[in-house]
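W.,

You were right to be curious about this one. When I first looked at the sequence I had no strong expectations either way, so I just let the prediction run and decided to look at it fresh. Below is the sequence, 297 residues in total, followed by the output.
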Amino acid sequence: MNLHALRIFVEVASRGSVTEAAIALSISQPAVSAQIRKLENELGMTLIIPDGRGISLTYEGRFLYEKARRIYDWEREIETQLTEFKQGRKGRLRIASTFLPSHYLVPQWLAQYKRYHDGVDVEIRTRNSQQSIELLLSCEVDVAVIIKESWDELPIKRLHLMDVPYWFILPAHHPLVGTEISMEQLVEEPFLLREQGSSTRDWLFALCSEHGVKRPRVGLQYHGLVESIQSVRAGYGTMLAPAVAVREMVEHGEIGRVRVPGVDIKRPVYVCTRDDDTDQRPVVAQFLDLLKRERFG
């Protein structure tokens, strides 16, 4: 079936006039009539008949019109939705994030993003640094938000967003709360450590090597940040925690803090995309633009 002729037939049928259809389509009336005849010859049936100054549909013409107009309704719907994809008003944004950004930074960013892009489906996966990078490189996510100091040679573009202070925390009633101690003393405490692949765990071990002290004794190992903090709050262990996650608890006396002279820890937060993602989908580009405004605003 000739779809061009079918489109013209639908226009004529919907308007009840060859003349009005010709005006709407910006083609001549004879050209419209010729396409209708072509479609009728192809199908071997009469579709329209003259009716005064307009036309009427035959029984077969009415059947074809009811079926065919659905095609063009769907076409218009598809075109509308594709336009929304191009404009970033519809689509899917997939994010992998390490635990700190996932709990304390990404929710704020997404609240702003969704105010202007409510039609975008957002999927967030909380993983450690290594797992987040793997998800990015395997194209399972579009963006990775990571806290990490050292980088291997990977096909990744990264934008530095901010530096996050980290504190050594311990239970509120621990005798060392509010004091200054050496790294040697600190590592004698039972530590709450994250799993293998965690950048916080790697960073703590690197800090121990830098100060020439042994690695801390592992009291408990968790696969999440919030769980670790809650153990300290409940009265057990020491850990290196982001200030943004524990500041209020420290201020309210629910958790204590200990300082190590000469150790001022600030860890960088990066947003990462793939090197080969040169033609970013609009939903991704708009999310990155928001982060850049946050960074420079």
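Here's what jumped out at me. The chain has a mean pLDDT of 89. And, maybe more interesting for your project: The chain is about 45% helix and 25% strand.

Coffee later to discuss?

I.
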